[in-house]
Design goal:
Two copies of one chain form a homodimer.
Chain A lengths: L4 E6 L3 H12 L3 E7 L10 H4 L10 E2 L2 H7 L4 E4 L5 H13 L3 E4 L12 H13 L3 E4 L10 H7 L4 E12 L5 H6 L6 H10 L8 H12 L5 E10 L17 E12 L2 E11 L7 E9 L2 E5 L4 H11 L1 H6 L3 E3 L18
Amino acid sequence: MSLPLRVIQYGLGAMGSVMAKMILEKRDLKLVGAIAHHAEDAGKDVGEFIGLRKKIGVKVSHDPERLFRRVKADVVLHATVSYVPKVWEQIEPAVRAGLSVITIAEEMGYPFYKYPKLCRIMDRAAKKHGVSILGTGINPGFAMDVLPLLLTGICEEVWSIRVTRLINFAPFGAAIQKNIGIGMTPKAFRSGIASGKLPLHLGMPECVHEMADALQWKIDQIRETRRPVIAKRNVRVPGYKSVAKGTVVGFEHRCFGYTRGKVKILLEELGNVDPKLPYSNTVTIDGNPRLLEKMNVPMGNLTTTSHAVNVLPAVARARPGLLSMRDLPVVACLPHKRPRS
Amino acid sequence: MSLPLRVIQYGLGAMGSVMAKMILEKRDLKLVGAIAHHAEDAGKDVGEFIGLRKKIGVKVSHDPERLFRRVKADVVLHATVSYVPKVWEQIEPAVRAGLSVITIAEEMGYPFYKYPKLCRIMDRAAKKHGVSILGTGINPGFAMDVLPLLLTGICEEVWSIRVTRLINFAPFGAAIQKNIGIGMTPKAFRSGIASGKLPLHLGMPECVHEMADALQWKIDQIRETRRPVIAKRNVRVPGYKSVAKGTVVGFEHRCFGYTRGKVKILLEELGNVDPKLPYSNTVTIDGNPRLLEKMNVPMGNLTTTSHAVNVLPAVARARPGLLSMRDLPVVACLPHKRPRS
């Protein structure tokens, strides 16, 4: 692997534009191309497009296949959609062009159980072209898989795992708040859940499978529950209309992994827009010893994009194939070009 | 790598005998030999020797070279001494016999800076014989290197790192308490520090170098300070004579890693025998975002031995050479033969 690593940013939305900025800041990375969603943005300078107020000499592309063929690159950093089939449709040309891929698509965090056939196809294609494919982010990719697994490594025995993530959605803005049902009536929320229009947090079953595989546990049932949290008073959310008493102010999304009727893994994401709610990520390892670990994990956007960018060199060095975070060594923060010391 | 992995336990003292018991409990491991310190223990059954009250059909050896030549094994798990030159003297015959080695010797956690020449020798020997050598434990190996590094991976930028470990030595017994100067007069403690007879916690400079290398930071100075904590009252320690007012009841051992006069990494171990003191391990990442992580890490013995045992398969699969924890994927707890579910 020669440095700087040449990176194409696939997707320049809320996440992708942050990742493009990070790539430009990092000493060992070089942004050599970027792909936007709308045809009319093709040809614009990426620097200006992502709000840097200066040109960087790289043009926005709307033709991925052509870009992959024409630009010399090492890795594609992908941030467009969440579901595996659509991801594969988009990244297959990159793999065929000999480029490794990192995606923040939640389902790609551990796709082997939901899409076994497609995973064999992706793995074969990656190996054929000598490249690696990895899904990562803060969750999946860290909070509910890598971090708790790391903690099990210092235990003599582990019987069950619980991860609780409190997320305050107040700073995320109205669009994301709408996606999680904020302000809905309880009835509308429940029908959104039933129809699949309100998936809430994607990727928890993937994390259950990833940890169970690493621990050699046989999980024979996975169950998800999604419940609304109803406002008991009118809640003022800065930058958002108030949430009225009796409507949805948050959610409780849980994923249970069972072995013979016993909960071995419980993952829960408790989201809320009440500005007073703290962020936290708590891992409880019921084992010998019993471990209790707690940290703040602020702003999923920043940590997801940072993790995906910091893992770039490790993926460039990794064995070919469809990988998960379990295959990679510990990821550390990459240095900036001009580090503040 | 074929399972079960065949393991020789080198050292059957306080740590080694716990590791031997763990190996016997794990589904994918098989204890095929064990080496004790005293010649008179040779020939005893290992099961009885480590206090299991039953024979396991493996005899205690006092002739490592002969054991390595005669017994078919994959990895040696080493737990005898703390310093690199003596470790290498003991494990070289294992490497020459084609066995990988995991040691809990603190200095082996990241020996590349203190022993560059010896590390080249160890690395060459390991590669020549196609085996891996790794130092690990809870610290070095987890608390002040792997865990904080993992946290930096979700940050956009990191400026400095602080790890504070509070350790209650009350349950460790009189021998270990004597090693850390408990009950000494402040004067005797200080002269013990000055003469090197009271090293307190070994391995912090190693952790500083390990993290700095991973983060591509240039550390130009490392400084350690060791201070006594003086009892302000008589302190009752269960299972130990009381610590008299005015004598040493604990210590503060710090290691500072500097870049151009600025502290980039601060590691501190605060030890005490006051039974009311809690265990905790706190990591502060000064970066974007700022992270604060806290966990209990009870009883260094249990977590050190567990980590060294759980890493066995990863080391058997690793590339040949002298490794550090930075080279390995996330270590998860190995399953028991008869898991409690």
